[in-house]
Amino acid sequence: MDNLWILYALTAALTLATSDALTKKALSGRSEYAIAWLRLVATVPVLVPVLMVSPVPQIKPAFYTAVGLSIPLEIVAVLFYVKALKLSPLSLTLPFLSLTPVFLLVIPVLVLGESITPVAAVGVILVAAGGYCLNAGERGSGWFGPVKAIVRERGSMYMIAVALIYSVTSTLGKQAVESSSPLFFGAVYYLALTAVFAPIAFVKSGGEIRDCLAGRVPIAILFAGLLYGVMVCAHMIGISLTQVACLISVKRLSLIIGVVYGCWFFHEGGMRTRLLGTCLMVSGVVLIVLFQT
């Protein structure tokens, strides 16, 4: 039972990757604002029962500060995330989420002068090499072709921004969990995010949400939201059973699953190089989170 957290981490990885693939399917011809909010709404049937059965913990003041600061950033991240899924192939966008631990590692080094372990440094190099491999098809335009391709690919740029935002919200989230409890925080956070995001989505979707609520909600986004809710619960339970670094290392397998989904279900090309790039990035993440935390 000591390794039960692995099951929760794998569950989080599979449900997140599947939710992303279903979200991409639902985005076809639809507003990203509507789909982003509907995915959050569809988590409610999962998160409300969790909140009702979870004991209310002793809440410290830092909880409210962390949640209050995180939600505006999370709204931007959600929009960028969905825009990335809409604009670009899964196999080119999802792997860039592996940059979050790199940002968490590099920013303190640059700003605070903190040191980096040799093994974690290798991890950073692997992540960079993986990002290069993802766009290796652009090699014909020179050695910097893959780097230029990242800049041209708007979805990749959006996902890099998401990874940067997550490097901030993950720190705030850890503070919120320590000031309450994992399941309580997860349920409250995403329910609050759904409520705060609602007016933005209604204004920006151009009436599309009203049409969906009238009975034309894409089935794909309903399942995407339910799976996302399961992911949140699995993630939070897993965190309570092991170190965050260990859980995140296993959960990052979602990136590999996402690349496979992109190639199989959306017929995205270059599976070999993109899968290689993703594996390099995930390997780098594992080295960073295990040897620098």
Quickly list its features.
single chain; mainly alpha; globular
How is this structure best summarized?
The chain has 293 residues and is mostly helical. It has 15 helices and no strands. The protein has one domain.
Description:
The protein is globular, with a radius of gyration of 19 Å. The protein starts with a helix and ends with a helix. Helix content is 80%, strand content 0%. The chain is built from 15 helices and no strands. It has 293 residues and is mainly alpha-helical. Helix 1 packs across helix 13 (244-251), helix 3 packs parallel to helix 12 and helix 10 (182-204) packs antiparallel against helix 12. It has one domain (4-291).
Strand content: under 5%
Stretches where pLDDT falls below 50 for ≥5 residues?
none
Global outline: globular
What's the structural domain tally? 1
Instruction: Give the overall pLDDT as a whole number.
Output: 87
Give the radius of gyration. Answer: 19 Å
| Class of secondary structure makeup | mainly alpha
Describe the main β-sheet briefly: none
- How many strand units? 0
Question: How many alpha or pi helices?
Answer: 15
Beginning-to-end CA distance, first to last residue: 24 Å
Helix content: over 70%
Order of helices and strands: HHHHHHHHHHHHHHH
